Amino acid sequence: MRDDDDDDTTPDALRLDKWLWMTRFCKTRAIAQTLAAKGRIRINGRRVDKPHALVRVDDVITLPLPAAVKVVKVLTLPARRGPAAEAQASYALIP
């Protein structure tokens, strides 16, 4: 049995709520979990309503944010919640 239940990553995937938090789309992980549970986020065009849905490199994520709907392509999976520049380097906005 593992002691660290926060290790939700696999070598090629990351939980949606963790990805939203690490890439600074959400201020806290709890907000990211709530946003994901509402069922308005899409991964590769498929509606997701689970915070534990997996995000992989090359996935296209549609995020309904308060200011606008953003469509992003995942370039890399972040290893930590670092500075904004580091977070922005892990995805590309799709116009």
Give me the secondary-structure topology.
Blueprint lengths: L13 E2 H7 L6 H9 L3 E3 L2 E3 L5 E2 L4 E5 L4 E6 L9 H5 L2 E3 L2
Antiparallel strand pairs: 1-4, 2-3, 2-5, 5-6, 6-7
Helix pairs in contact: 1-2
What does this protein look like?
This protein has one domain (14-93): RNA-binding S4 domain (Structural Genomics Hypothetical 15.5 Kd Protein In mrcA-pckA Intergenic Region, Chain A). It is of the alpha+beta class and 95 residues long. The protein has 3 helices and 7 strands, in the order E-H-H-E-E-E-E-E-H-E. It has helices spanning 16-22, 29-37, 84-88, and strands spanning 14-15, 41-43, 46-48, 54-55, 60-64, 69-74, 91-93. It starts with 13 loop residues before the first strand and ends with a strand. Helix 1 packs across helix 2. The model is unreliable at 1-5 (pLDDT under 50).
Features:
single chain; 95 residues; alpha+beta; Structural Genomics Hypothetical 15.5 Kd Protein In mrcA-pckA Intergenic Region, Chain A; five-stranded antiparallel β-sheet; two-stranded antiparallel sheet; 7 strands; globular; disordered N terminus
